[in-house]
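Researcher: Re-running this chain for the archive, since the previous output was lost when a drive failed. Same request as before.
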Amino acid sequence: MPEEQADGAPSRPDEHRSRLAIPPLAFAGLVIAGLTAAGIGARYGVRGDFDVIHGLLVLFFSINLVICHWEICLFLKRDYIERRVQYWRERREKTGRTSAVEFLTGSVPLKRILSSETWADVWATYSQFDSSYADRRTYGYNVDIANGLVTPLPMLLLFAAFTIDFLPALVAGIVGAMMFWQLTYATSVYLVSFFVAGRQRLIGKRDVYIYIWALNCPWVLFPLLGLYVSIRLIVDGDYGVLGY
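Model: Regenerated structure tokens:
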């Protein structure tokens, strides 16, 4: 992927390539697949069965844990992101390629794949569609930082509880209800704020459908499923809703 040279100018995307390199999208996919397989496999190892709702929530937990890492990078590298936005804007004008696609399918040396600067470019490229992620005064910027810093711990707790039911169902349900409601509400407000601010007029309709609706709606739909499960855990007092 493109990175900055010592003089501060971004290098070309085909420079600094290494034999031991991987596209960011492929790496993220492998991590998500590994976490999901671990959750489903752990349940199968303990109980010898599979449940669709459990599988869907484990997949969502795995995706969101990866996103949380990116959101922590958003906080740590906010100055760097603001500089990179201009680079990616110029890069798109020069190549005609979508910045997000170029970044995610580019090649990153394995020694840099966990670097906060590497994943800061997620936000620099997404800022081509929503400039709020290059402005630390906005709701979108701050709510994603909050998600990255606050939700990993309760999400890991629910990941384990939903998989091996080691917590009382009432406790897991209360934690889940708080977390899933927060995710549903925060994402819904973000979508409203995007359109109220008129940012949709700055990008094409195709980009609105792909990068705003398609990428954000799962953070409403999956949490709604999780909220339903959490309420059932509280009301029923057991893990029957997850097939236990």
